[in-house]
Design a protein that fits this description.
Two copies of one chain form a homodimer. By secondary structure, chain A is an alpha/beta fold. Helices cover 32% and strands 18% of the residues of chain A. Chain A is built from six helices and eleven strands. Chain A has a seven-stranded mixed sheet with strand order 5-2-1-6-7-11-10, sandwiched between helices. In chain A, helix 1 links the parallel strand 1 and strand 2. In chain A, helix 1 runs parallel beside helix 5. The longest helix of chain A has 15 residues. At the A-B interface, helix 1, strand 2 and strand 4 of A face helix 1, strand 2 and strand 4 of B.
């Protein structure tokens, strides 16, 4: 299987920082030895805030808009976040996911990022998971998805959906293990001093809500 | 003990994204219920890159320069990163830490962020830890520090230093537990679906290098 070289990540107002940074930091370490590149996409080139209107917020800078996104992106990462609850924040991302999914090699979601891609229709009939505290809302967003509550992450075809926020790290390590080799993934986790959950069925948060 | 309300984070070229985002995302969730604010500091207001010159990089946007930083910042977070190996990247951060440490309530470091603050002289005679893969380099940077290799994090006085990259999350949860209450910290970890290491002496990475 060929290793993807071009990654994209979607940002929208109110994205959850760790949904983006957990997966990307694993890939940051991967990039030190593997020739991969990243495009950061949003509706405009303005910095995108994690908590707009809050006095506690951070912003990341897009490299492209959805309209000017490179066409050779092979893997797309879609984060969740409080902003995903408002349609106006995520409509451009939904439209972009609907348009590009057919040409992606892999689609990875974290937390309520699965609700964003579900709204694009690409999860219909697909097994998927999401944040546990938000699960009933996510399920209601698109009942046509085969939602699985008790799962750290779910792989169905080329779509990897993960559970809440921190689960984005485990799904990314699992993805890197599959695509680049388990030894590569574990080496990165060790350098990051990250204690992985390697079992997608181990989900201590599923029964909390 | 009064709860701090103003947090600052230091950015420099080549900071490790997760060193910043792990702690901040815990605080992002804290900020939904606690009235805290964040200032993001760097030498200029330009976006700061995680991997300058790389095709796989992200950037975060400072809110203030070190020269214009608000004087009422009570807690300062200092990340590590590959950029910390080059003096020119971190000299402005070192100077800032040296200047403001006397008026801080708490100083928190992640990974080789402890080398940055050690160079400012504020760790002399203080027990501290750092990234395990980089430990010998960190130790050589400032032998006057009481470096402790086997530790997920170390608290000495008002200085909380943590081990590599992902350890920044555990030290932040421990800090939030101490300052805002353990129930608050665990509630945030559950919402983030993060499996904490709550034992500062449990460090499976210390013996790897």
């Amino acid at each position: 299987m060929s290793k993807p070289s071009h990654y994209g990540v979607v940002l929208y107002p109110g994205f959850q920082l760790l949904d983006v940074a957990g997966p990307l930091d694993c890939l940051n370490l991967l990039s030190l030895n593997d020739d991969i590149k990243l495009s950061i996409l949003s509706s405009t080139l303005d910095p995108v805030q994690t908590l707009p209107k809050s006095s506690f917020s951070q912003s990341m800078v897009p490299t492209h808009t959805f309209d000017t996104a490179p066409e050779d992106i092979e893997v797309l990462l879609v984060p969740g976040g409080l902003g995903a609850r408002e349609e106006s924040n995520i409509q451009p991302a939904i439209d972009y996911v609907r348009k590009v999914y057919p040409r992606l090699q892999y689609l990875i979601t974290v937390c309520t990022g699965s609700a964003v891609v579900a709204k694009a229709g690409v999860l219909d009939g697909v097994r998927a998971t999401s944040n546990k505290a938000a699960f009933e809302w996510v399920r209601s967003v698109r009942p046509q998805v085969k939602w699985e509550k008790k799962a750290r992450w779910v792989v169905d075809g080329n779509i990897w959906t993960s559970s809440g926020i921190s689960a984005g790290m485990d799904v990314t390590y699992a993805y890197v293990g599959k695509l680049y080799g388990e030894e590569v993934a574990q080496n990165i986790a060790d350098r990051s001093e990250y204690m992985r959950n390697k079992d997608p069925s181990f989900d201590p948060f599923a029964d909390m809500y």
